[in-house]
Amino acid sequence: MSLNVKDLPDEHLFTPGHTACPGCAAPVVVRNLMKVFGKDTIVYAPANCLLVFGGTYPYIAWKVPYLHEAFENTGACISGVKRAVKKLGKDSLVVGVAGDGGTYDIGIQALSGAAERNEDVIYVCYDNEAYMNTGIQRSGSTPFGAATTTTPVGKKIPGKTQNKKNMAEIMRAHEVPYMATMSIAYPKDFLRKAEKARDTRGFRYLHVFSPCPTGWRHDPALSIEMGRRAVESGMWTLYEAEYGRITDIYKPKRKIPVKEYIRDQGRFRHFTEEMVDKLQEYANHKWKQMYGSLPEEKPE
Amino acid sequence: MVQSIESKKMVVTGDYSAAYGALICDVDVVAAYPITPQTFIVEDFSEFVADGLTDAEFVKVESEHSAMSACIAAQAAGARTFTATASQGLALMHEMLFVAAALHLPIVMPVVNRTLAAPIGIWCEYNDTMPERDTGWLQVYCETNQEVLDMVIQSYKIGEHRDVMLPVMPSMDAFILSHTVEPVYAPSTQEVADFLPRYQPQAILDTSNPMTIGSFAPPEYIQEIRYQSEVTMQKAREVIQQVNDDFAQTFGRDYHGLIEEYRTDDADVVLITMGTVTGTAREVVDEMRGEGKKVGLVKLRFFRPFPLQELRRVAENVEAIGVYDRAMSFGSGGPAFIETRHALYGLDIPVVNFLAGLGGRDVVKEDVRLMFEKTLKAAKEGRAEKDVVWIGTRGVKP
Q1: Given this model, what pLDDT does residue A108 score?
Q2: Quick check: B295 contacting A, CB < 8 Å?
Q3: A109, A156, B120, B221: which sits with the fewest CB atoms below 10 Å from its CB?
Q4: Counting one residue from A and one from B, how many pairs have CB atoms under 8 Å apart?
Q5: Are B73 and A80 in contact (CB < 8 Å)?
Q6: B219 and chain A: CB distance < 8 Å anywhere?
Q7: What is the rounded distance in angstroms from the CA atom of residue A257 to the CA atom of residue A283?
Q8: What ipTM score was computed for the predicted complex, to two decimals?
Q9: In this structure, is the dihedral angle defined by the CA atoms of residues A169, A171, A175 and A180, taken in order, positive or negative?
């Protein structure tokens, strides 16, 4: 019933030839979203990697109308486009694609406003857990302990001292018609949620976990794997909600230790056992929050 | 579409005039956020929508930054848009003002001139709009509520002109206009529709003809884009005059374009004023003329584009010029003064700057008289005692 990867149209609305880093999840996110959303879509991107790798004048990877204005205003810009489209008697889908900095931090006000007004738009956050475009600075999404250029591993302070903000729950609390968390490591789930967002009216929020080999310092070939381990360790949860009520949670078949998730990522390379324990505690807390209880420990 | 409304005489505030102007210009999308003393504009427009006078989309955004962002987006999608703000709200929009202008989106935004904190205040000062003079917006300062309404209509006509395609900021003095009722004649929606045709954008976000607006651009292209903004701003000079003349012919009210002169023909000195102080100054001119003093007045209407040649032409026939400013560019002088001197470069006459009415302090006839007297003295002596004179400032000798 729901879309399969093989059902997607061949035509790219976000074309090859863009300049994203090898292994970047963001173009995978937008390319596939656009295949679901279709040609009658208008896209807004604030300041983020996507703005830059999507095309520098006179080149552009977008085959649909595409707008950029600034950084902190995605919620407002997609509202403006949609209201104009509606007033002019059309019904194009209007989509904003922001990064985590543009969503968790500088863009949260405009996002919250648009959600509260229940604007008829789709807001997509591709979350790579730092300001990657400007050179890997920490954001509200950066996990505990991760090294970024503004949370360096110093002699005194080893990386970020705070936990990742729970942005998806903030958006669920807005009780919008539809919100979902997604990952490129789970394509079927990804496409189903994209389709559901496309076919829902009112404000829709899609939050996609997007590994970044450049910022996380992992092998570009492991991006999908990082996405999978994030879910299996409890560092990221796939779920969806309608009007604030959770309608589905994907529970991985096994729970892996956080150590397995952070192992291949340079941003966690400096972790002491104590730091691993602290991050494990966070992942356990999230797991309990989302799935009710931790799986029973199997005897050695 | 706006409902058909007959022409009428109203007794309304400056804020109402601005909102009513937007209504009869049949705007498609409004995105606005309330701020004193602009609040009546959003309230009045909300009532127009609630009463079904228009089916315009009204995006009640959560900040002025979002108001301008949404207007830019809606205008880029092909709509005629409207917003309004003041002071802190304008400052919050600052970043987006550049975007609106550089993307050539003819948004119209009345600004109620209010002091920009600190100290926080709500009364008239031009330190909110003056810092925005380099954003690429046209700026026009109004003297009456009638002028506010008329300039909203003219702003769309000027901004949407194919040779201009720039956003316009008609502004009015806080409270003195925004909250004070005056008789205002409003044309009918049909008369406005005849004067102001539907917005015909050349490039919009439309899925039947996809294009990118606001692309990331390298140094190979940006300088030419800046030059284009300057070319269109220069073109606006002619368009402003043309629209003024068309408007005068159609509606019978002539604002004379970039500047309006009063008794300058045989004047020895002239004072340049902006906004509502002009009305006070007109009376002072009459009084001083009665005393045999040959003084004249220039109402500086447009600040962008700045009336360089018009002021130079006036200055060529006088012995000294006084320039009134309601804002200070600290470490230099008032913005109108700085620009006037630039316009008058090479003319050997004294130019004196007067700072008064900051933070909303009343500028009364005695203050204006003092400005004229100081300018007359400068004319007589061939030089100004001081370049920048602060009038009515406690502890400061003017």
Answers
A1: 98
A2: no
A3: A156
A4: 157
A5: yes
A6: no
A7: 9
A8: 0.96
A9: negative
Chain A residue numbers with beta carbons less than 8 Å from the beta carbon of B79 are: 83-84, 87-88
Q: Under CATH, domain A5-291 is a member of which superfamily?
A: Thiamin diphosphate (ThDP)-binding fold, Pyr/PP domains (3.40.50.970)
* Cβ atoms of B359 and B115 closer than 8 Å: yes
Residue B60: list chain A partners with CB under 8 A.
117
Distance from the B234 Cα atom to the nearest Cα atom in chain A, whole angstroms:
25
Q: Provide CATH code, domain B259-390.
A: 3.40.50.920
Given this model, what pLDDT does residue B10 score? Answer: 98
Four-point Cα dihedral B352, B353, B357, B359, nearest 10: -170
Whether B29 and A81 lie within 8 Å, measured CB to CB:
no
> In what side-by-side order are the strands of the sheet with B295-300?
B259-262, B295-300, B269-273, B320-325, B351-355, B388-390
Nearest by CB: B213 against A64, A67, A84:
A67
Contacts of B227 (CB under 8 A, 6+ apart): none
B398 burial (CB, 10 Å; 0-12 / 13-18 / 19+) is middle
Asked whether the beta carbons of B263 and B93 are under 8 A apart, the reply is: no
CATH of domain B8-251: 3.40.50.970
Residue pLDDT, tens place only, B119-145? 999 999 999 999 999 999 999 999 999
For chain B, what are the domain ranges?
8-251, 259-390
Residue whose tokens read 């050349």: B202
Mean pLDDT of B153-166: 98
B29 touches chain A (CB under 8 A): yes
Q: Specify whether the CB–CB gap between B307 and B335 falls below 8 A.
A: no
- Looking at residue B17, its pLDDT comes to 98
> What's the predicted TM-score (pTM) here?
0.97
Query: For B303-325, how does the pLDDT look when each residue is reduced to its tens digit (9 = 90+)?
Result: 999 999 999 999 999 999 999 99
pLDDT by residue, tens only, chain A of 300 residues: 578 888 899 999 999 999 999 999 999 999 999 999 999 999 999 999 999 999 999 999 999 999 999 999 999 999 999 999 999 999 999 999 999 999 999 999 999 999 999 999 999 999 999 999 999 999 999 999 999 999 999 999 999 999 999 999 999 999 999 999 999 999 999 999 999 999 999 999 999 999 999 999 999 999 999 999 999 999 999 999 999 999 999 999 999 999 999 999 999 999 999 999 999 999 999 999 999 988 876 655
Q: How many angstroms separate the CA of residue B15 from the nearest CA in chain A?
A: 23
Examine domains B8-251 and B259-390 and report if their fold is the same.
Answer: yes
